[in-house]
Design a protein that fits this description.
- This protein is mostly beta strands and 311 residues long.
- It has a single domain (39-310), classed as Jelly Rolls (Sandwich), CATH 2.60.120.
- 13% of the residues lie in helices and 35% in strands.
- The protein has a 15-stranded antiparallel β-sheet that branches.
- The longest helix has 23 residues, at 2-24.
């Protein structure tokens, strides 16, 4: 009888170890993405040392690779952030990002455009936010859009990733022009937000700076704030590289801008960037059907009346 109890104990321990091991694995969906044009191959990289300034957390900011790469860290004392030296009115913006590994609840790494420093009560914003998780190496990809200060009507959509974002750098991109805003991961469009003349006020319309940050989002980032940052696992270090910023650089107070793309390809006015190609449209459908797990347009508990573009 004692031998049977020992065997049962060993069996229970094996099951526990296997379950623990499985729960620690990334829950990233194992999908093979469709083939799409690589927009990130069309535009030049920008030196981080030349294109950005450190705006907070200087001790947690480090340049490497002769200024081509930067690491930003979050610890108990501070996060860290960069802002572009130029402001842009439309363009293509991209960064290769490698996220912190391990448990990361409450941690937010972001690559986004904003003009809140210039228009504090009437600002625009186009956000890529990578949200840490209570599971090891598991991150969520969130997109958001604010226009004319409509912070009470954020337009969030959330996606799973089909890879481990902590293992190596992956490309996260924003195309913003007069026609639409497109969010991309490794060149796969995951969201298209079209401009509509029927409600132009909900489309970002003022020049913005580009930001790269890591910070403590304990109050909301992971399961609505259920899991705050655990600084036992700090520092949380995010790496930014292969930054691209091609578009209209605002050069004077009147808001006129000069193009920065050195090629004939123009993300601002080029017709090839006005609509998605057939391959991109198919990839968009794939991403939204396989990976999206939240859209503000379906959140009837949040909005008594859905925003106009949802109808």
């Amino acid at each position: 009888m004692a031998f049977s109890q020992d065997k049962l104990l060993i069996f229970v321990l094996l099951i526990f170890c296997a379950t623990t091991s499985l729960s620690a694995r990334p829950r990233n969906r194992q999908y093979t993405p469709p083939s799409v044009p690589h927009l990130t191959d069309l535009f030049p990289h920008v030196s981080i040392s030349n294109g950005f300034s450190n705006i907070f957390g200087a001790k947690n900011f480090q340049l490497t690779g002769n200024g081509s790469m930067a690491t930003l860290a979050l610890d108990k004392s501070s996060g860290s952030g960069l802002a572009s030296k130029n402001e842009y009115y439309y363009g293509f913006f991209s960064a290769a990002i490698k996220l912190p590994s391990g448990l990361s609840p409450g941690v937010v790494a972001a690559f986004y455009l904003s003009n809140a420093n210039v228009y504090p009560h009437n600002h625009d914003e186009i956000d890529i936010e990578l949200l840490g998780h209570d599971k090891r190496n598991d991150w969520a990809f969130q997109t958001n859009i604010y226009a004319n200060g409509s912070v009470s009507t954020g337009r969030e959509e959330k996606f799973y990733l089909w890879f481990d974002p902590t293992a190596e750098h992956h490309q996260y991109s924003i195309l913003w022009n007069n026609h639409h805003i497109v969010f991309m991961v490794d060149n796969i469009p995951v969201r298209e937000y079209q401009r509509n003349s029927a409600y132009p006020s909900v489309f970002p319309s003022k020049p913005m700076s580009v930001y790269a940050t890591i910070w403590d989002g304990s109050e909301w980032a992971t399961h609505g704030g259920k899991y705050p940052v655990n600084y036992k696992y700090a520092p949380f270090v995010v790496s930014f590289a292969d930054v691209e910023m091609s578009g209209c650089v605002v050069s004077n107070p009147t808001g006129t801008c000069s193009k920065t793309s050195p090629s004939n390809l123009d993300p601002v006015e080029g017709q090839e960037f006005a609509t998605l190609s057939k391959e991109q449209a198919r990839a968009l459908d794939w991403a939204r059907s396989k990976l999206m797990f939240y859209s503000y347009c379906k959140d009837v508990s949040r909005f008594k009346v859905l925003p106009p573009e949802c109808k």
